[in-house]
Amino acid sequence: MLCALLLLLVVLLLGVLRLCWRALAAGVTALGRTRLAELLDAAVLRRTRGFLGEDGIWRRLWARWRRWRSAPEEPQAGCGVGDAVPGSDGGAPGSSAEEVSRLLAMAEVPEEELNPFQALGVETTASDAELRKAYRRLAVLVHPDKSEHPRAEEAFKVLRAAWDIVSSPERRKEYEIKRMAESELSRSVNEFLSRLQDDLKEAMNTMMCSKCQGKHRRFEMDRDPLSARYCAECSQLHPAEEGDLWAESSLLGLKITYFAMMDGKVYDITGGCMASPSSSRVSVSPP
Predict the structure, then answer these.
(1) Cα dihedral 92, 93, 94, 95 sign
(2) pTM of the full predicted structure?
């Protein structure tokens, strides 16, 4: 039913338009071409035609619409096939002054110590294509003919030296061998220093026993020597002197902890060879 009504309305609209067109054609014929031209030359119609014609708003709207249609689409954000991956080859290129300053910071480094990957702004695992791309990008930014920086030539020398290393298979292999040797040496030194630190820490926390001629562990306590000894009889803290040894009980006397004053510090020496209960002096000597 609804479709039939819509079809009827369309037919009526077409009929009205057809009648209007016939009436307009008959009026133009009766008026004549000469009179029609005079009406079109009237001042009001000329202004209307100028507003809507070539010099009017419609022309400007048409031009804007054509420009909008012909404008290229903006690239979407992402890492496509041709996109630069941030961090791999420098990402978005920095300004010429920034890259020149970055390369100038390496100008004083001898060529045999220069890190070419750092100079090119890429990872050490970069492929030949990534290295070439990074070099070309930086060359455009820091070349003396392209950059207005007064020290662009020095920066370009650093860039060229880095490229000479990575572009030559022989020199790159030599650099890789040298880098691996330095890395291995650094790892060995770090391991040695770590073991040495552990040994020194062990020695600092070990004391020689003058009673059994052995070694015992000691643990430094966070106690002030001026108030290191606790007296259960007076419930007061007393100062400790160098070489003093005392015991403190806890857990209703079930746990006995021995302390000693050595080298101006208070240590827990429980587990070592203690002096006799009547002695107040340490029977152990510091290392």
Answers:
(1) negative
(2) 0.38
